[in-house]
Write a structure and sequence with these properties.
Helices cover about 50% and strands about 15% of the residues. It has helices spanning about 5-15, 15-30, 45-50, 70-85, 100-105, 125-135, 150-155, 170-180, 180-190, 200-205, 225-240, 255-270, 275-285, 295-305, 335-340, 360-365, 380-385, 395-410, 410-425, 430-445; strands at about 65, 90-95, 115-120, 140, 160-165, 190-195, 210-215, 245-250, 285-290, 310, 325, 345, 370, 390. It has a 7-stranded parallel β-sheet with strand order 3-2-1-4-5-6-7, sandwiched between helices. It has a 7-stranded parallel β-sheet with strand order 10-11-9-8-12-13-14, with helices on both faces. Helix 4 crosses helix 20 and helix 12 packs across helix 13.
Length: about 450
């Protein structure tokens, strides 16, 4: 252990009480954070220990460990796991997470014999207990999650550890270079990294990661829930006007939307508006789906205080209820919301938060309007704009105007929807390439 990791290990060990306090606070809004807290520190119940095989050298008998920290990574992992199970029938999955929403989504991926636990806090002790308990045949980290002690622990125990669907933006590289004494051994200790883009690959190599391929983004291989899309489109038929979605909105973006909506609504009511203003205020049905479920009530209160009526998805029976704003307050139904919408404003891109995944919207045939901040998904955003599946604007006001104009011109909306679908299908294949690379490592390591 070098001096940098020794100091880091001391800091993470001392921070354990702070982590427990943070989890207690998070659990007030999201009770999932209070579940099985001991797992965060490598403490597992005896029944779990008894079900884990410690002796098998068969990669099917051992766990294939996938770490998907939050909701987005878990959805990407689902795409990978579907093909991985086909190639390794009887595979036992060890699935780890860092967030409550990720863990809730991950429960849907489990089969008999699989195990789901929290990611161990990155102290040498917690990592050692985790690896000693489960002894995985391989570890697959999704997208960004590289932890120094976790990598070192896998190296010491001969567990190949790979970074799949890897993305690494310029901000992450700058941070890693400032902590090079810690980051370089961590990234260099991976068995392989498979990047989403050439730019990601270049930055990963700059910090020492063994990049073995550029496979594209797994999320292009998603197959949206056809029943959800059909339900959304059926509801849209009964709505009587176009629907514009603010998708996966982040803190502050609903307020931006409201600042631009209220003056236009007042102008429309005063009869002083032009057609574009009237469209924004009254010409379309607005649907807002916050990214994080703990904010559903907060967003509703924001809208109510502004004098707007709100209808929540959780209260809908046969169809959406009439209101100024529909609030999507459910998990796992983005395909339904994209099916219901004519066009979507991409959350996380209007506040400086780097954007959200636009690929699912495209796969559902929903064109997207992007704000200026898409650094987390830079290449996908640029490709979507080049293909006509997305448009970029400077701010929320411009985004609302562009989205409502597109939604209210049927021929333009239909053409943009077709371009979105073609864009999504043209970039598939990452899952197949990633699974093949994983199998090569597992088969080589088991010889």
């Amino acid at each position: 252990m070098n001096a940098a990791r020794a100091l880091y290990s001391l800091v993470t060990w001392c921070a354990q009480p702070l982590l427990r306090r943070k989890l207690r606070r998070r659990a007030v809004a999201e009770p999932g954070y209070a579940h099985a807290v001991g797992e965060r520190f490598g403490r597992y119940p005896v029944p779990m220990d008894s079900m884990v095989s410690h002796h098998s050298v068969d990669p099917i008998g051992q766990f294939v460990w996938v770490h998907a920290v939050s909701l987005g990574e878990t959805r990407a992992a689902a795409i990978l796991l579907a093909q991985l199970r086909e190639q390794l029938p009887g595979m036992r999955l060890l699935l780890t997470h860092g967030t409550a929403t990720g863990r809730a989504e991950g429960e849907k991926l489990l089969l008999p014999g699989d195990v789901q636990v929290w990611q161990p806090w990155d102290t040498p002790g917690a990592v050692a207990r985790f690896l000693r308990t489960f002894r995985p045949a391989i570890g697959i980290l999704m997208e960004t999650e590289v932890w120094p002690n976790l990598v070192a622990g896998c190296q010491q125990r001969g567990v190949p550890l790979v970074l799949a669907n890897a993305r690494f933006n310029a901000k992450s590289l700058h941070k890693a270079q400032r902590l090079a004494a810690l980051a370089r051994p961590a990234y260099g200790g991976l068995t392989a990294a498979w990047a989403q883009t050439e730019d990601d690959a270049t930055r990963l190599r700059a910090i020492g990661a063994p990049v073995r391929g550029v496979f594209g983004n797994l999320k292009f291989d998603v197959v949206p829930d056809a029943r959800q899309i059909a339900q959304g489109r059926a509801w849209h038929t009964h709505t009587g006007r176009p629907v514009v979605l603010l998708a996966s909105s982040r803190e502050g973006e609903e307020a931006m939307w409201l600042e631009n909506f209220k003056p236009k609504q007042a102008a429309a009511h005063d009869g002083q508006s032009q057609a574009a203003i009237n469209n924004i205020a009254n010409g379309v049905q607005w649907l807002i789906v916050p990214r994080h479920p703990q904010r559903f009530d907060e967003v509703q209160q924001l809208l109510l205080r502004a004098g707007l009526t709100v209808s929540r998805r959780s209260h809908w029976a046969a169809e959406p209820e009439a209101a100024d704003v529909w609030l999507g307050d459910s998990l796992g139904e983005m395909a339904l919301y994209y099916g219901l919408a004519d066009v979507a404003l991409l959350g996380g891109s209007f506040a400086p938060l780097g954007g959200q995944n636009l690929i699912e919207a495209a796969a559902c045939g929903c064109p997207v309007v992007l704000g200026p901040h898409t650094f987390n998904f830079a290449e996908a955003a640029e490709l979507a704009c080049a293909a006509g599946a997305a448009q970029r604007v400077l701010d929320m006001a411009a985004g609302m105007a562009v989205a409502t104009d597109l939604a209210t011109v049927a021929a333009q909306q239909a053409a943009a929807s077709e371009r979105a679908t073609l864009f999504a299908t043209a970039h598939r294949g990452a899952a197949r390439a990633t699974v093949q690379a994983i199998l090569e490592i597992v088969q080589t390591d088991s010889r």
